[in-house]
Amino acid sequence: MKKEELLKLENQLCFPLYACSREIIKAYYPLLRKLDLTYTQYLVMMALWEYGCLSVKELGEKLYLDSGTLTPLLKKLEAKGCLEKQRSSEDERSVLVKLMPFGEALKQKALEVPQAMACKVSLPEEEAQVMYRLLYKILGELHHK
Question: In this structure, what CATH number is given to the domain that contains residue 72?
Fold first, then answer.
């Protein structure tokens, strides 16, 4: 491949990933609006629905978010009554995030979101699994470097 070819959009792996990510988040918007959540707030809530209580550090690691991004998200979700933050009794430096009853109840409303999204992206199961593995492989390689 010629050097000039390297700069074409069609030759970039990052471009379709970026564009696809934007389109997927856009497709989530009407579903999450019903829950009064942004996409990133939804990710935080999914992590808490799965794990119950996490430190801010653990939450950031699971979501690949830095504290500068995570802190305002948590403040907004706390103001909505979805979660609460408290210092760990075992380690004062650690802040724990746990679901409040309103946040727990929101889980029932959110159960329709994954199925609604699956209907919007009709990808055969095999292809979806391959894509999932490849994306996590790339993410792992980039995140640990």
Answer: 1.10.10.10
Note the pTM of the prediction, 2 decimals.
0.90
Residue-wise DSSP of 63-93: HT--HHHHHHHHHHHHHTTSEEEEE-SS-TT
pLDDT at 90: 81
Indicate the SS3 state at residue 85.
Answer: strand
pLDDT of amino acid 3: 86
Residue 70, domain extent: 33-106
List phi, psi (to 5°) of 9: -55, -40
> Got the DSSP string for 104-132?
HHHHHHHTHHHHHHHHHS---HHHHHHHH
Q: How many domains does the chain have?
A: 2
Q: Is residue 143 part of a domain?
A: yes
How many other C-beta atoms lie within 10 A of the C-beta of residue 124? 8
Tell me which residues of the chain have a pLDDT lower than 50.
Answer: none
